[in-house]
Amino acid sequence: MIDPSNTGPDAARATPLLEVRGLSVVFDTPDGCHRVVDNVDLQVSAGRTLGLVGESGSGKSVTCLAVLRLLAVRGRVTSGEVLFQGRDLLKVSEEEMEALRGCQIGMVFQDPMVSLNPVRTIGWQIAESLHLHQNLSKSGAAKRTLELLDLVGIPEPKTRFGEYPHQFSGGMSQRAMIAMAIACQPKLLIADEPTTALDVTIQAQILELLSDLKKELDMALILITHDLGVIAEAADDVAVMYAGRVVEEAPVLDLFDSPLHHYTMGLLNSLPRIDRSVDRLSAIEGAAPPPQDFVEGCRFEPRCGHCDDACSGVRPDFSQISDTRRVACMHPVAAT
Amino acid sequence: MNKPAAIEPEILMEVRDLVCHFTGPRTSFFGKRMIAHAVNGVSLELRTGETLGLVGESGCGKSTLGQLILNLIEPTSGSVSFLGQDITKVDKQEWRRLRSEMQLVFQNPLGALNPRLSIGAQIREPLDIHDIGDPDQRPDKVLEMLEAVSLPPHLLERYPHQLSGGQQQRVVIARALINGPKLVVCDESVSALDVSVQAQVVNLLADMQKKLGLTYLFITHDLSIVRHISSRIAVMYLGRIVELADSKELLENPMHPYTKALISAVPVPDPRARASRATIRGEPPNPFNPPSGCAFHARCAHADEKCRSQLPDFRQIGDKHLVACHHAEALA
User: Fold this and answer.
1) B146 and B153 Cβ atoms separated by less than 8 Å
2) Which residues on adjacent β-strands are paired with residue A88?
3) What is the number of CB-based contacts under 8 A between chain A and chain B?
4) What percent of chain A has pLDDT over 70?
5) Rounded distance between C-alpha atoms, residue B183 and residue B46, angstroms
6) Residue A250 and residue A59: Cα distance in Å, rounded?
7) b/e map of B253-284 (b: 16 or more CB within 10 Å)?
8) A180 φψ region: left (φ > 0), alpha (ψ -120 to 50), beta (else)
């Protein structure tokens, strides 16, 4: 268990901009309550990129929606705190939260085509957040919007300003979404699978853009993805999620050099890679459990080749391996 | 049972100068309809027992090509022959017989399965439709197939929504293979699956190929998977194949600037490889309004006047390496 007084990782970096402590999210469904996010701790500092990686259903998107207080009616946070610049976002009023969202915290979603309003021009949509959050005049907002379009690499901003989403390609719409998210120069940008719907050549361009913007605006970035290739490309620190829990946290180089959790190891081994060929992929047998089958003990146990009696029944505690690394496994890879 | 041919593999399927145009909206109220050149003169062959990977970005026409090969849509011109027989010209009865020799596995298994049929009925259906074998023995055949794709027998009575994504895709594969087809077109068959499950299904496809001597046309946007599964790779760009070679040769010695860009854009799960990235500018051109000359010239760093005006030939360079680029030799 992490000792709150242990300031090791914090001292090594700056004070985190966002700190999530013990966050749990429950979804009420007709067949019972399911805890889809279970006691998750995360932190990210200004100028850093936290990569949140996991398979579908691991709770990575729900965690971020909970941080923004955008959970659907059935989802509710049952415990934990979300400290943004020292304030608990779960306790502030809805008005304050509205002022924070889109201003201090920006968000980019997976599918730009459904996130954009089809009956408004791109320029109008970007200017809208400038009106709302920065009280800019109409001409002021338009001027700033043109700057933003230019900043995110949209050619001919003046023409594009008056166009509608259907006239934009997938890559261009995602650029427009990013322009909208950074319009008010947020301190934190949450990008949920920002490149999953895009082609690889466009994905490379968008990842480059995000990393440039992060430097330019000194933002903290949370990058949610299922793709370890994207993580290797863009993240500084990584949290690996499995079945609603964070199972391993490490700086990106350490994670890829020496994964400690057997799930991380299995995930890396099961990736087909363009830079080397193998005869057979080493798949992880079975599938991740759905929320109704979540157990208290280690949730990876049924698929793990290194488990014993100690693994079931009790939740594996985090062992702090170094200042920056921790893993929730009874028998981490290095020890076996 | 089919056996993969030994030395010179026989040609299972041959596509010659295949063209498929789709008509789009009118340019104006009285104007002509716009034409999308989805597939624009493709020639290739599939040899028995091989896996040909077909890669390209969205909109390049790779799925259209897959559907043309299965005669699901009619080509504008060109021919598709299966074991020497032009399938675009065969009569209905003959086509019905041929159809069970070629199968398709789609991206989204839940969309491909009938939500109101049990898994067992689902896998059995092709046998009933094509009236293959003794009806009394069909349940055994279904069970055998279920085992072959590593699904437990108790799933027979379940329905698609009760299965996980990986299990659903196994059912789709079982259903595709139960008639003993020769050719399977896999259109993004593993793209929707999580990495750990994706590896299982890729391994399953490889096992079934070994066991049944199948030929795959593996359509995907993911070059990492293609490297793993294919013996040869064809790269498509705006309706044309721009490069075709053995997998290892293509990935280690790409000649077309587009192939090079595509390979370098694939994120490698190695944080130390970050710096070696060369991104290309721009986006794929609009198929309604394809550029003159080489379709890639607007995004290519090596383009010159010739590229802008002349369409490059698809020609052979080196050992079994075909490429459509004016400057392939100079860039190699």
Assistant:
1) yes
2) A83
3) 135
4) 95
5) 9
6) 19
7) ebbbbbbbbbbbbbbbbbbeeeeeeeebeebb
8) alpha
What is the distance of C-alpha B161 from the center of its chain? 27
- What global pTM score does this model have? 0.86
Q: Write the pLDDT tens digit of every residue in A238-292.
A: 999 999 999 999 999 999 999 999 999 999 999 888 887 788 888 888 888 988 8
**Which candidate, A83, A3, A40, A77, places its Cα nearest to that of A241?**
A40
Q: How far is A95 from chain B (nearest CA, A)?
A: 38
User: Is B58–A199 a contact, with Cβ atoms under 8 angstroms apart?
Assistant: yes
Q: Are A174 and A194 in contact (CB under 8 A)?
A: yes
Q: What one-character DSSP code corresponds to residue A239? A: E
* pLDDT category of residue A321 using cuts at 50, 70 and 90: confident
Q: Coil, strand, or helix at residue A143?
A: helix
Name the residue with tokens 């085992």.
Answer: B147
SS3 A190: strand
How far A7 CA lies from chain B's nearest CA (Å)?
A: 27
**Measuring CA to CA, which residue among A227, A247, A225, A222 is closest to residue A237?**
A222
Please state, in angstroms and as integers, the Cα–Cα distance from residue B255 to each residue in A129, B44, B312, B328, B330, following that order.
47, 18, 13, 6, 9
Q: What is the structure's pLDDT at B3?
A: 46
User: Which of B203, B221, B251 is nearest residue A200 as measured by Cβ atoms?
Assistant: B221
Smallest Cβ–Cβ distance between A274 and the set B221, B223, B271 belongs to: B223
Q: How many CA atoms lie less than 13 Å away from A19 in the CB half-sphere? A: 13
Q: What is the pLDDT of residues A27-82, one digit of tens each?
A: 998 888 999 999 999 999 999 999 999 988 899 999 999 999 999 888 899 999 99
CB < 8 Å to B165, chain A: 56, 287
Cα-based torsion angle of the residue sequence B204, B205, B209, B211 in order, rounded to the nearest 10 degrees: 20
Q: Do A256 and B225 touch (CB under 8 A)?
A: no
Between positions 57 and 116 of A, the ones with CB within 8 A of B are none
Q: What percent of chain A has pLDDT over 90?
A: 61
DSSP-assigned states of every residue in B233-255: EEEEETTEEEEEEEHHHHHHS--
The one-letter code for the residue type at B311 is: L
